Amino acid sequence: MRVSDLDTPAILIDEERMKLNLRRAADYARQYGLRLRPHVKTHKSVELARRQLAVGAAGLSVAKTTEAEVMVESGTPDLLVIYPVVGRAKLERLTHLARRTRVTVSVDSLEVARPIAEAARQAGVEIDLLAEMDAGLHRVGVQPGDELLALVAGLQQLKGAHWRGIAFYPGHLRGAADNLDGLRIVLSAAVAQLRRHGHVPEIVSGGSTPLLWQSHTIPEMNEIRPGTYIFNDRNTVLSGACTRADCAATILATVVSVAAGRMIIDGGSKTFSSDRTSAAEVTFGELVEAPTARFHKMNEEHGYVELPADAPPFRVGDRVHVIPNHVCVAVNLHERVYLVRGDEVTATLTVDARGKLQ
Ligand SMILES: Cc1ncc(COP(=O)(O)O)c(C=O)c1O
């Protein structure tokens, strides 16, 4: 099949670029002795999880237990649910999963941890726990210092679950240009305090795509969980962690209406997601064929593109490739993605864990 045979809108993945992105991160992790546990939220595909494992990932990270149920099919030796698991249905899923692979959960309270340990004990399985620390994002996580120490001490008392280390997500740091010294100091002090009290973390799990290439400069961190790096997107470009040439995912769209200085493409918020970039200007993607065009507004199924005088003339039926702002959310809106090599479609992949939100 050819790209020109595909109906639109459609997510295209440049297979060679994706492979390079996977290889580069795996080589980097190997070079610095970092364990790579990629977050699969970006692609939600069992096949792509397998490819991550094949080039060197030690395991996978997920946010949801239903995502974990899908991803266990990849044959991963290790699954981290990097999200507080709360509620009976989710605990049941966890204990079933723990019969099939090693399962770890990050927790930021004993209220979350106790039922996990109890469910594991009753099911006769083992579940590992990481104590989640707030590194500055102020989302989940206890404060480093005494709060973290108290949580770790509490986790070590639990029967049925094993405390193995700490986790954090530096989502407040949007790129290499941000000063990482605060994170370095906080993390070193937190780990030193745990050690002084006899709690030696085997795993210190952090990392993100914007900070991917700085990971080796963060002392104590020995595991990274990048997600977006497999495809990259406009946000990754803005963070400085990649160039436009490293963006493997584009959304193919068709021009369906043209007027002076503007046009409409056949996708809106249900195709691209409404996520903005971290830049001040509100735009929803970059047109590869017309980088100066402004994709500035969306309805559900309409994308509004303003065309400056220097943009090429577009006609109804023309196709454009759009680099999305936030590829992870866009992929979750599509049933499948197409791997491509030039004009050739090399594979059609189902977005297996699409909509797995529970
Ligand atoms: C807890 C956690 N870990 C890892 C990631 C991966 O981050 P990125 O997509 O920037 O690589 C995310 C992303 O949202 C996350 O929430």
Structural features, described:
Helix 3 packs parallel to helix 4. The chain has helices spanning 15-31, 46-54, 65-71, 88-98, 110-123, 146-157, 181-196, 234-239, 269-272, 327-331; strands at residues 10-14, 35-36, 60-62, 78-81, 102-107, 127-132, 161-167, 203-206, 223-224, 249-259, 262-265, 285-287, 294-298, 303-306, 319-324, 336-341, 344-350. It has 358 residues and is an alpha/beta fold. It contains 10 helices and 17 strands. The longest helix is centred in the N-terminal third of the chain and has 17 residues, at 15-31. The structure holds pyridoxal-5'-phosphate. Residues 39, 42, 82, 169, 208-210, 225-229 line the site of pyridoxal-5'-phosphate.
Helix and strand arrangement:
Layout: E1 10-14, H1 15-31, E2 35-36, H2 46-54, E3 60-62, H3 65-71, E4 78-81, H4 88-98, E5 102-107, H5 110-123, E6 127-132, H6 146-157, E7 161-167, H7 181-196, E8 203-206, E9 223-224, H8 234-239, E10 249-259, E11 262-265, H9 269-272, E12 285-287, E13 294-298, E14 303-306, E15 319-324, H10 327-331, E16 336-341, E17 344-350
Helix pairs in contact: 3-4, 4-5
The structure holds pyridoxal-5'-phosphate (PLP).
